[in-house]
Each structure stands twice: as structure tokens, then as C-alpha cells.
Amino acid sequence: xxxxxxxxxxxxxxxxxxxxxxxxxxxxxxxxxxxxxxxxxxxxxxxxxxxxxxxxxxxxxxxxxxxxxxxxxxxxxxxxxxxxxxxxxxxxxxxxxxxxxxxxxxxxxxxxxxxxxxxxxxxxxxxxxxxxxxxxxxxxxxxxxxxxxxxxxxxxxxxxxxxxxxxxxxxxx
Length: 173
Fold this sequence. Notes:
Elements: H1 2-21, E1 32-34, H2 37-59, H3 66-89, E2 91-94, E3 98-102, E4 108-112, E5 118-122, E6 127-131, E7 136-140, H4 146-156, H5 161-171
Antiparallel strand pairs: 1-2, 2-3, 3-4, 5-6, 6-7
């Protein structure tokens, strides 16, 4: 029975993320796209779970629990920090003639719209890849305003309509 509740929770979260990705935004006024706020809240929640659990175990004053404390801190704390940093750092800046992506590591890569050679989606990694002559831009598929970004890419790139439609079909948007 508990698997049923887990399945419902995961379905609700994925539905929320898909809803946020398909939100309509005005790309003329919004020059920067970001991930759903859920990533920030989930990351902070994992860090709080790690800290509260670790403090509870330490305060209980039991012996031989230090391995579990390290595991809890490492797993939930590490996972939470990574997810929160993905939210903080992964951004897409849209300009008239260029598309710039700031990665998890705060590395910026820029490609001109007319130089994009191909667009593909990898469901395993969760990234849509915009291949330019030098750099490949990786955009997470939970970016708020993804539908509008793909429509803009369809207008700005030449001859990539079929590839963009393939990405839309894989994402069911």
C-alpha cells in the first residue's frame, strides 16, 4: 500500500514540473529562464532532513551511530545541496540573436540562433541539446517557459522544425 502513495506523490511532483515547464511566458520581457521553484524547495528540504536527523541522532546520545549520521548527512545533505545549486545556477538568457546557458558549474556557453545546427532531447539526462558550431548548450527540460523557448527556437533557426517537433513529441508538449 505504501508503494501506492509513493506512486501518487511522484506523479503529482512530475505533473507539477510539467505544468511549470508548459507555462506561457512573454519572452520579450523575460530575458532569463530558470528551473521550477520546486527544485529549490526540494533541495532545502533535503538539507533540513539531513540536519534535523543528524542532530536528533547526536542528541539521543547513543553509541555507534556515527556511521548513520555520516550517511544521512552525506546522502540527504549532498543531494539537497546539489539540487538547490542546480536551481540557483542553471539559467537561460535569451537575446535577439543569441542564446546563452549558464550551467550547474556557472560556465556560460553562447550560440547564435542562426548557427544552431541541430536540436535533440535525451530523456536519460533530461537535457535538450542545442548544437552549435563550437559549443553545445544543455537546457534542462523542467525550465519554466520551455514551450515558448521551443517556439522561439522554431522561428529563429532555419530548417530545424522537424527536430524541434521531435523534441516536442518526446516531451509530450
